[in-house]
Amino acid sequence: MNRKQRRAQEKHGPAPIAPGAAASIPKMLTEAFQHHQAGRLSEAAQLYQQILGLDPRHADSLHLLGNVAYSVGRHDLAVDLINQAIAVNAKVAMYHCTLGNAQKELGRLDDAISCWRRALALKPDYPEAHSNLGLVLREQGRIDEAVAHCRKAIALRADFPEAHNNLGSAVQAQGRLDDAAAAFRQAIALRPDYTEAHSNLGIVQQDLGRPDEARASHLRAQETRPGSLRYSCNAQLFMPIIADSTEAIAVSRKRYEAGIGALTDSPPFLDVSIKDVNPRSFYLAYHNVDNRPVMEALHRLFRAKVGGLTFTAPHLAGWQSPAVRGRRVRVGFLSEFLVGHTVGNLNQGFIEHLDRDRFDVVLIHTAHAKRDALSNILDRLADTSLTLPHSLEAQQQAVAAAELDVLIYPDIGMAPSTYFLAYARLAPVQAVMWGHPDTTGLDSIDYFVSSKSIEPDNAQDVYTERLIRLDRLNCYYTPPQAPTDILSRAELGLPETGILYGCPQSLFKFHPDFDAVLAAIALGDPTGRIVLIAGDNASWAEQIRARWQKTDPILLERTLFLPRMPRDRFVMMLAHIDILLDPIHFGSGNTLYEAMVGGTPVITWPGQFMRGRIVAGAYRQMGIADAPIAPRIEDYAPLALALGRDPDRREALRQSLRSAAGRDLFMDMSAVRGIEAFLDAAVAAAGRGERLPTDWHPDLQAGQSPEGGSRETGGPHAG
């Protein structure tokens, strides 16, 4: 029904149907449905429209035409048409179920759930509605409900591959990876060419530490959908999470780089939607390798293959510096992790304390960002906050509508949605911070904001972005309240005697080179224990243990894996740790700040990249003269053991660190002033069509370049 027909119907009511015309509708509907089932959507749509020309209130045709709209990605139109069908006949469960599918694709998950619940109210034994509910409840984190609905769908129809696939995703979220793999295999047994199930099986096999099986599943998914960018990326950009050895890292990286080359040289993809595409570049940062070449190659791949990534916000065409117009600088912070997460913790102070006489702060959450207590606090601290829609195009438009002067990504590389959005030019100045401490490889990001205390002299070489080295660590960190009643060692699951060496970090930080260091500590202190965190994925600890079984079996006896714990309990645990061990190559960030609440000493060895130098940089900022910094990797274990044998030095260091952190690390307004100086200078440079020079320093006056400095021109659209 077109708009003119609908207005006429609203004014005069439905026109009577001629008897001959009414008699022809069943035959037309049968023919249309045959086209529909055969995938001839255009022919089906034409016949549905002809039926609606004869009977504008033909509910089945409205519903099926909505189905066609859904199939071609016109989800708003699908919602409109199916709602019209429901207005004619609200008693058909299928209409509500299909409407829920369209609402889900638009990101309206609560509306989708309501639709499926209405379908079940009409038809309680409706397996599709149960399965769909399971899928979306899992996305909302309501895992037990999701599992129950998926099992109900399977009980109603055991040969329902989508229900088995959705059950696999739900139990995977519970950490039951073997059960998830079994569910995905059952879905594949029912439908051997089920692309999604092959892909999901590949992901869970990767989590289980079975890289060969994982890659085989991804290759099978690619075979079933060869024109899909998503499944081709899964197959070609494969990266194990826990490395078995340094040699295995080299092999994986070589294969990853070859995958980029194969995708770059491939014919154009038929489906270039970046929804659910994950380049898995996150794990590259843990390999102790310069990632600039591979990240730039990855950028060139996606820039060439996905035209929708290239976008320029309309307000940039006539943009002028805020100083010209006498207004505040409008700064956006965009991340999926502006919640109770390291990124949220490390950026809360900037969001709160940027000078509101000069800066207008906009908080931007991605579509998949969770909501929690900290995200609500951050929303209140910002001048404006918004949550992005689901589609890339709508996200670009939403950020563009904010008309930002500066867009800051606290992290790029941790969430695919943020990575792909960062390809767009959404503000005259675009910068990334150290939430994921590695270059993005993107020509659309102007600056990487870091600190001179943690960057080596040649650091610019490993960044695509212009490196900004501020005087202070770029963090205003409010420490958690020190617990007054600390649980005992035993209550926290810790040994009651012996020195405790703690390394409570994500296990993918444990580079194989670190194993020998840990083993030397274990050998040197027979009564001590090394305390680790198992994490949400139990298989990662199993993979680490399997690696140690081959190389350093003593670690199987001397390490203790604790489960993940709430933040207050984690801080209590840190208070009992005698010595913290900073992982080599990719060290501590948030854990360092939490450790300094109680002054727990952290042994560190500064690596070749910033991501392994943060603890040493913090010691320098705090002015700790006798900081436990190993000059060579060979000195790491002896330094830890010596400190373990010296309780007096440990206590003196603890007191010194606690005092210095309160003075020079926590709630550092100098860090805020440094960010403000950078923002002012970067916006002023953009107003002149320039970028800041490589050796820019906050002490420089706007418009001045020191002797030997470089300045790049090209206006606010320059990459």
UniProtKB/TrEMBL annotation:
Is Transferase given among the entry's keywords?
A: yes
What EC identifiers does the entry list? 2.4.1.255
Keywords attached to this Swiss-Prot or TrEMBL record, sorted alphabetically, are: Glycosyltransferase, Repeat, TPR repeat, Transferase
Where do the TPR repeat units fall? 93-126, 127-160, 161-194
Looking up Pfam families in the UniProt record yields: Glyco_transf_41, TPR_11, TPR_19
The record's listing under Gene3D superfamilies reads: 3.40.50.11380, Glycogen Phosphorylase B, Tetratricopeptide repeat domain
* Name of protein: protein O-GlcNAc transferase
BP GO terms, sorted: protein O-linked glycosylation
Specify whether DNA repair is a keyword of the entry: no
Q: Which family does it belong to?
A: Belongs to the glycosyltransferase 41 family. O-GlcNAc transferase subfamily.
User: Boundaries of each O-GlcNAc transferase C-terminal domain copy?
Assistant: 486-659
Write out the ranges of the annotated region (Disordered). 1-21, 690-719
At the top level of its lineage, which domain of life is listed? Bacteria
Q: PROSITE patterns this protein is in?
A: TPR
- Check the record and name the InterPro entries matching this protein: OGT, OGT/SEC/SPY_C, TPR-like_helical_dom_sf, TPR_rpt
Protein's pathway: Protein modification; protein glycosylation
- Extract one GO molecular function annotation from the record: protein O-acetylglucosaminyltransferase activity
